[in-house]
Design brief:
The chain is α+β, with helices and mostly antiparallel strands. The chain contains five helices and 13 strands. A hairpin with a 2-residue loop joins strand 5 and strand 6. The longest helix has 23 residues.
Length: about 270
Amino acid sequence: MKIEKCFDCWVAMAALLLAGTTAANAQESREDHGKRAVEECVKAVGGDAFLTMQDRTETGRMYGFDMGTGNLGSATYATIYTQYLAAAPGKLAMRVRQIFGEHQDSGGVLILPDKAWDVSFHGARPMDDETFATYKDTATRSIFYILRERLKEPGLSFYWQRGDIFEHVPVDIVDITDDSNQTVTVYFDRNTHLPLRQSFRRHNKEFNDFDTETSAFAKYKQFGGVTLPLETRREHNGRKTFEMFVETETINQGLSDNVFELPANLKVLK
C-alpha cells in the first residue's frame, strides 16, 4: 500500500511539473519550443564535438528478430566502422562497414553513399535496390543522423506536440518534418535532453498502407566529448526486429579509405 501511495505521489508530482512547464512556456510557440528541444539535444550529445565527429568504431552484439513473429532470428558479434561525409542531396552522407564475427571472419556489409554490398566468403554481392533504399531511409531518418547531417537542410521544421511521461520519465514530444513532408517523432528526456525514442511511418507498397518504424535508445555514455547510446532497439509495427548492445566505442580514429573498399581479390557476384 505504501508503495502504491508513493507511486501515486510521483505521478502527481510529474503531472504538476509538466503543467508548470507548459504554463511557463505559454508564450512560446510550438515551433519555437520544438526547435529549442532539438537545440538542447545537440548540446546534450556533445555540441560541436558531436557535429564535427568524423568517424566512430563500435563493437558489440547485434540481434535480429523475425518481423512476423518477433522471435530471435540471428545473433552475431559485430564491428561497425562509420565515417561521416559532406552532405550531398539525394545521397547518404556517410559510409559504413559492418564486419561480423569476433575475429572479423564471418562476412558483413559495406555501405557507400550510392551503392552497397553483402560480403561473405563467396564474394561481394550487390545489395538489391529495395533493400538499399530501405536502409538509406532508416539511416537518414535516425535522430542522430538528423542532428549530425540534416539540421541545416532547407525546409526542415520542428513542432512540439506536448509534454508527457514515457516509461516514468518526463519527455518533450517533437515532430521533425522535412520538405517532402516526411515526419520523425522524437521523445526527448526533459532532464537530460537526450532522445529516448523515435518513430516514423513508411509506405508499404504491397498493401498500400503504412508501417510504423520505432527505435529506442538507452544507457548513454560519453566518448571523447560525444554522448551516444550503448543500447538501441528497433521495432516494425510493434514487433522487435533489431537490438544492438555496444561493448566498446571510439571516435575520430582517422579511419583510412581502405576500410571502406572491397578487397581487390574479392569476387564480385551478380
